Amino acid sequence: MSKLTALSVSIAVLGGVWAFLALGPLTGKVLVWAGFIAWGCYFHTGGDTAALKKTIAGMIYGAILAGVALKLVGLNPLGLAGAAGPAVYIAVTVFFLVIVAGQSLLSVVPANVYGYAATAGYALLANNMNVAAMDLTNPVLLVSLSAILGAIFGMLSGKLSAALGG
Hints:
It is a single chain. This protein has helices spanning 3-23, 32-44, 49-75, 84-99, 109-125, 139-163. The protein is mostly helical. It has one domain (3-163). The longest helix is centred in the middle third of the chain and has 27 residues, at 49-75.
């Protein structure tokens, strides 16, 4: 079997399993699309153990910074009017999203951005700014758990692909 076919089969099979879990028994505990973002990030980061660590760390770091931004936007501690407040709070948190790239574990800036974007996007679309909750109603925790599992599924699909002859 060619490498491409083996990878296609492994991702198709495990993608179906992930979708079943995320849309079935894990409904409300993970986001199927956030897991697939992490899955893709795992492969574009190198598809190895280092990629697994960097994907998970970067996406969680990005989710945390998005949570900080969302909290700042809600509180508006500087009292900035209109769109100025969100713009300033986003600019500050995005600076910290990138400046950490000198640290090995957070060196994959796209992973950091994916976690930030997934968290902010989910929170805004679901109208869920509950970033201080200590349960899975918190968009930061929900995206983080989804990223962890998605990256693990990425790793598993790589191993299954290798077993299939890829």
